[in-house]
Structures
1.
Amino acid sequence: MVVSIEKELLRVRRDILSNNVSYASVLVPLTFKEKSDVGVMATDGKYIYYSEEWMTDLYDEADLDYARKVMYVITMHELKHVLNCHHTRRGDRDPKGWNIATDFAINSDLIEECKKDIGYTAETIFYNMNALVDTNGQFRNDDGTFKSAEHIYSILKSNQEEDSDDYTMPMPDPDGDPDGDSMPLDSSSFGEVTDFTDGDGNPVEANSDEIAEEQQRISDAIITAKQQMKGIGDDSGYARMSALQEAQSTPVDFSTSVAQHLTFKYSTENDMSFHRPNRRLMHTGVYYPSNKPSHSGVLAIGFDISGSVSHQERCLQAEALENVLKSFPQIEKVKVCYINTIVQRIKNKDDDDFNADDYWDEFDLVSGEEIDVRDLSGGGTRVDPFFNLIEETQHEVFPDCAIYFTDGYVNSDREDNPPQFPVLWATTDHTGCTPKFAECVQVDVNNL
C-alpha cells in the first residue's frame, strides 16, 4: 500500500487532538522527525522521532485502519512520556532500565485511554507489539494507583542479576515457588524516551536550569489545560490532567502555583460571570450569572484553625501570598476568615445574632495594608463552613475566587453542590481529600 508518511503523521496528530483537546499545548509543539537509528518511535521532548522503514513496513503489511490505529497508540505513548516528564527525570539511571520503568508507569492506564478513543483494537495492538503492561499489579500502590517511574526503576534494579545488563520480572507461579521463572523485559518494540536535548540536539545535563525550565513548561501546560477543561465542563479531560499533575515527581512551587491559578482567572474575560452571581435571584436556590464585569478585585481566604496548622505556618502562607499578589493589581481587597467545625467569630459581639459580615477580616491592598493573621486555634477540621460563609455574606462585591489553607485532612460534603466560584486548595500535607471542584497545590512551609 502506497501512503504518504507525512500525511499519515498529520492524520494521527489530528485524531489525537480531536479526542483529547487537553493535550494540545504539549502535542502541538512536538515535531515529527525521521531518524534512521530509531527502531519504532522515540521522543526527547522536542521531537517525536520515527523510523520511516518501520512505518513503511507497517502500512505495507497491515490493513489501513489497523495501521492507523497502531500509529495512534504509539504516538499517544510518546506523548505520555513527555507529559510525565520522562525525558527530564532519568538522572544517572541506566537508559534501558529507565525506558522499561517509564513504560510500566504509563502503559496500563494508556490501554484504557486508547480503548475509549479508538476501541478495543487498542488492547490487541499493545499485546501484538509486546508493550510492557503491569497485568499483575506488581507496580501498583495500595490505593490502586501506579508507582512512579523512579520507584518502579528501583524495583527493577533490585531484581537485576549482578553483572547483568538485562532486566527481568518474576513470573506468577501458581505453586508459590519464589525461585520460579523470570520474564526478560524490553521496551524497544513499543517506542522509547530519550533525554531532553538542547538546540543542537545534545542531551542536557541532569538538574540543569534547562531541565527545570522544561519541567516547568510541562507543568504549566498541564495546569492550564486543567483549568480549560474545568471551564468547558470536560470532566474526562480534567481527570486526565489531574492524574498527570499528580504524577509529576517535581512538586510545583507554591507561589508559582498560586500565580498560575490567578493568572488563568484574571486572563479570562467573560461578558457574564458566574463568579459574581446575581444576588437578587439567589433566593431561588439557583445561581444566575451577573452582567457585571467578571473581576470584582476581591480574594477570599480561609485558614484552617483546627490545631493541625500552626499560627506560624499561616503567617508564612500569608507572607508568600502577599508576594504573589504584588503581580496582580486586579486584586484590591483580601477577605480572611478562620475555619474549624464552625466558622470562628473574629469580632467581639455582645449578642448571638448571626451576621456573616462579622466573620471577615478585610485588608485593603490598594492602600498598602498587609494581611495580618490572627493567632486563633481550636475546634475540629471542617471546610464547608468557609464556602457557606462566602455565599451567605452580603458582600459589597462578590469574591472572584477563594483559597483554603489546610493540612488536607478534611472532606467536603458539597461534591454534589460545588461552590459557584473557583477554589484553590492549598494543603501542607494530605492531598487525597481534595474536593473535585478545587484545584490542589501542596504547600511546603519550609520553602515558602
2.
Amino acid sequence: MKTLLLMRHAKSSRKDPNLTDHDRPLNKRGIRDAPRMGNVLRDEGLVPDLIVTSPATRAVATAEAVAKASGCRSELRVVAELYPGDSPSYVRVLREIPDDSRRVLVVGHNPAMERFLGELTGMMEILPTAAVAVVELSIAKWKEISQATRGRLISVWRPREFE
C-alpha cells in the first residue's frame, strides 16, 4: 500500500509583469498557507517520505515550506516534467519513485493536478491553491502505477478549513 499526497502549489503573485509564469513567487497568502498545510500533514501523521515538485518557483517554494513545517527530512526532488504537467507525466514521475518511500507528496499545477486526481480516484474535486488530496493506492511498488490504476480518495484539505 502506498499513499499519494497531491498538492497544488500555494497562491502566487502576479505583481511583476516581467516575470514568466514559471518564475512567479508565492504571494502573502501562499507564504502563509504552505506551512499551514505542512502543519496539517504533520498533525495527521502524514509526513511525506519524499517530496516531488514542479520546478516552477511557486511550486518549489511551496514544497520547501511544507517540508520544513511537516518535519519532512528527505531531499526535494525537482522534476521538470511536472511543469505544467499532465496525467501521463504524473504517472511517469511516480513510476520512478523509490519503493522505500511509502508516502509521497507531489506539488504541481492545475488543471493537470485536478484531472489526474479525477482519473486516479473517479472523484472530481476542486483543488484551490495549497489544497492537499490524500489518496491510498493498492500497489506494493511505485513502478506498478499506470493510467489504469485506481486509488481511494481519503481526504481533501483546503487551507481555508484551517484558518
